Amino acid sequence: MTSPRYLAVELLNKTFKAGGYSNIQLNSALSSSDMDERDKKLCTAIYYGVIERKITLDCVVSGLSSRPIEKLDDVILNILRCGIYQIMYMDNIPDSAAVSESVALAKKFRKISAAGMVNAILRSFIRSEKKFPCPKDDLGAASVRYSAPTELIESLIADYGRESAFGHLEYSLQAPEMYIRRNQLRCTEEELVSALGRTGIVPTALDGCYRAEDGAVINTEAFRRGFFHVQDMSSQLCCHALAPAGNDLVLDICAAPGGKTFTMAELMNGNGQIYAFDLHQKRVKLIMEGAQRLGLTNITAAVGDASRYNAELPQFTKILCDVPCSGIGVIARKPEIKYKSLSEFAGLPDIQYRIAENALRYLAPGGEMVYSTCTLRKAENDEVVDRLLSENPGLEPCELPELPSVERGSRATLFPGSGSGDGFFIAKFRKSE
Predict the structure, then answer these.
(1) Sign of CA dihedral 332, 167, 232, 359
(2) Quick count: other Cβ atoms within 10 Å of Cβ 40?
(3) What contacts 126, CB < 8 A, 6 or more positions away?
C-alpha cells in the first residue's frame, strides 16, 4: 500500500518543480491510490500544510542546516519540510514518529546517505523546543509568520492597509469552509436536511446557501440526485448581485466549471435562458454534466472565446463577466498561488478589460452586467472597473442589491473571514437605454 507521507513528498516535488494547481494534483493522485480514507486525510493534511507554510518551514531548515537551503536535494528538502510541519503543527502525531518516518522516507527515496542529516536536523529542532530564528524587520517577520512573499504582503498593505492585509493572510492559513447551494427546483430545505442526515449542513444568512460540516456531502445520494452543488458563498453572492429573473436572457461569458451558471439558472426558477461559454471543450463538458445532474434545462453551454466578439449571439439583458484573475482571494484553497511573482499577473488587467469590454457589446440597452474576480488586487478590480466606466460612454454604475456581508454601493470587496466565504470582488453596471 502507498505510504501517505511518501505520496505527499512525491506531490510536493512535482508541485514545487512544475507548478500547477495543488487541488488538481492531489485529487488525481488520491483517486488512483490504494490508500484508505485515514491515510488519504494524512497525505492531504501534510501536502497542503507544507505548501501553506513553506516559507516558515524553510526558515526553520535554514537555521538548522549546515548547507544553504538552495543546495539541498529537492527530495530531502521536502522530507524535512514534511517532518518539521508534523512537529510544529500536527499535535496528533508524536514528535518521535515524525522523526522516524522522515528518516525512513529518506531511505525509501534511496537517499540513504542523507538519512543521518534528516535525523539530526529534526531532533535538533525538537531539542530547541521548536524555536527558530525569525527576521527582525517587520516585513520579514510577517513573511515568515504568514508564509507569504514580502512583495505580496507589500501589495496587500498598499491596497488595504496592514490590518486588512494581515487579516487575509491569517485567514489563508486556516482550513477553508465548504459551502453548498440548494437546488430549489429539486428539493426543499427540509428535504435537503433530511437527505444529508449525519453529514450535516448549517444555514447561512444567504437564502439557499449552507455551510457543509463534512466534505463527504459530495458522496451522498442527495448530491447524485441533484439536490445541491458545491459553491463558495462569495460566488453565490455574486450571482445574487446580478439578480437574474425568469424573463431574462443571460450570458455567462467565462462560465466553467459552471457553479455560477447553475446558481443563476436556479434563481431564474428554471425559466429564461442562460448561454454559458468557455474556451475549452472539456470544461464546457463540465457545465453540461453539472446542468444535467441538477436538472437545469435553461442552460446552453458551448465553446467560446470571451475576448472575441461573436456577431451571431443575441443581445442579453443580464451578463456575468467573471474574468480570469490572480486568485489572491482563494489562497486558502490554492496556497501555491501566493508564491507566484506579482510580475506573472502584470498582464491580467488588460486581459480582464478586453473580456469585459467585449462582454459589453452583447449587453442590451437597459441591461445589467456584473464584473467579478476571486482576487483582492485593486489593479485587477477597482482599476479595471474605473477604466470601463471612463472609456465606455453610456455605461453607469448600478447599485448592488441588499445582500449579507456586502456593503451598499455599486462595487464591493469581500474579505475572507468576514462571513462571506472566499475573497472576492463584485461590481455592477447598467447600460443606458
Answers:
(1) negative
(2) 18
(3) 87, 95, 99
The H or E element containing residue 321 is strand 316-322
User: Would you give the end-to-end CA distance of the chain in angstroms?
Assistant: 66
User: What nine digits make up the cell of 145?
Assistant: 509568520
274: buried, middle or exposed (CB in 10 Å: 19+, 13-18, 0-12)?
buried
Q: Which residue in the block uniquely carries the three cell numbers 440548494?
A: 182
How far, in Å, CA of 10 to CA of 287, rounded? 32
What residues have CB less than 8 Å from 165, skipping those under 6 apart?
153, 156, 157, 159
Which bin fits 409, alpha (ψ -120 to 50), beta or left (φ > 0)?
Answer: left
273 phi and psi, to 5 degrees? Answer: -150, 135
Q: Where on the phi/psi map is residue 336: left (φ > 0), alpha (ψ -120 to 50), or beta?
A: alpha
Burial 363-389 (b: 16+ CB within 10 A, else e): beeebbbbbbbbbbbbbbbeebbebbe
Q: Looking at this protein, which amino acid is placed at residue 348?
A: L
> Using 50, 70 and 90 to split pLDDT, how confident is the model at 368?
very high
**431 CB-near residues (< 8 Å, 6+ apart):** 360, 363, 364, 365, 366, 367, 368, 369, 394, 395, 396
Whole-angstrom Cα distance, residue 318 to residue 141?
46
**Separation between Cα atoms, residue 370 and residue 372, nearest integer Å:** 6
**374 has catalytic annotation:** yes
Task: Express each pLDDT in 97-135 by its tens digit.
Answer: 999 999 999 999 999 999 999 999 999 999 999 999 889
Q: The sheet that has 201-203: what strands, in order across it?
A: 201-203, 209-212, 178-182, 228-230
**Distance, CA of 232 to CA of 330 (rounded, Å):** 10
pTM of the full structure: 0.93
List, as one string, the DSSP characters of 44-87.
HHHHHHHHHTHHHHHHHHHHH-SS-GGGS-HHHHHHHHHHHHHH
Q: Which secondary structure element, helix H or strand E, spans residue 5, and what is its range?
A: helix 4-18
Catalytic residue among 59, 239, 374, 398: 374
Residue 298, classed as helix, strand or coil, is coil
Angle, CA 86 vertex, CA 81 and CA 89 arms, to 5°: 110
Q: What is the pLDDT of residues 181-240, one digit of tens each?
A: 999 999 999 999 999 987 789 999 999 999 998 888 998 999 999 999 999 999 999 999
